[in-house]
Amino acid sequence: MALTDSFIDPAEQALAKEFLDNGYVVKDVDDRAALDAMRAEIVRLACEHRGDVVPDDHDGFLNTLHERVAITEINPLRLHVFNGLNQHAWCRPTYLKLARSVIDAVVGNELAMQNKVNLSIQMPRDETSTLAVHADVWSAETPFEVVEWTPLVDVYDTKAMYILPPAANRTVRERMSHMPDGGKTFDLFAAYKDDFQWIAVPYGKTLVFSPILLHGNVRNDTDETRWSLNCRLTGLFTPYTSEEKCLGRFYTPITPKVASRVGMNFKPPEGFDG
Ligand SMILES: [Fe+2]
Q: Whose CB among 80, 140, 154, 260 lies 3.0–4.6 Å from 49's, allowing a Cys bridge?
């Protein structure tokens, strides 16, 4: 039928429901060749740092990094790869391209993107690279943002990250407000241990989640190294909650439409501004 009573596409509505119910969606990347090419460059940069020959088996190389690299050597290697990756003009456009259809449906098509694509590496039994339970909005990030989180190897069990589903997350504030110290000593991980969802994401898929929800990771007790990329996206015209994490500092406008550009540059004629 040509007529419609809805402004929203049914597929987008279904995705929105999934995001609201779970706090995240996991989908195939939109461009697998782009992910493979990005991963190949990450492997090349890691080999460059160590003076290794670049292997053909990228998956095996990344998963078994801990067999060749000590925990104390991991951060210099990570920084070398992170800097090399972010120096490429294609880094952020290609990263967005991996999840463009989900981001378009969940956030919008006029976007601001975090200035860098972050890289995390968690080797088995490395206590130093765990990320304690937190919500990004607690460190002054905008509640309008989502995180595009993409593993470079299969992640599962403790090799994956965890998130607190929205229904349980809605009880956090209330429970903390009843604590005598306002929640400063509240052990969030212990309190919600049974509620966290560990999100298995095979290589080739991307996870888009709301960092309003409590999330983090624990010591990787699998026998494989975890590698993942993440970057934050928000609507271009959403508000920001801090001077530090705002447009121009933490985020860059990336996809303004022409009408918005015209509007932003418009200056009313003299005498018409009152
Ligand atoms: Fe986070």
A: 80
List, in order, residues 6 or more apart from 128 with CB less than 8 Å away: 71
Domains present along the chain, CATH in parentheses? 10-260 (2.60.120.620)
Q: For residue 3, report the distance from its CA to the centre of ligand 1, in Å.
A: 43
- Rounded to the nearest whole angstrom, what is the distance from the C-alpha of residue 9 to the centroid of ligand 1? 30
Whose tokens are 């919600």? That residue is 192
Q: pTM for this structure?
A: 0.94
- Distance of CA 255 from the midpoint of ligand 1 (Å): 24
- Are 159 and 125 contacting, i.e. CB atoms less than 8 angstroms apart? no
CA–centroid distance, 136 to ligand 1, in Å, is 5
The pLDDT tens digits of the residues spanning 69-117 come to 999 999 999 999 999 999 999 999 999 999 999 999 999 999 999 999 9
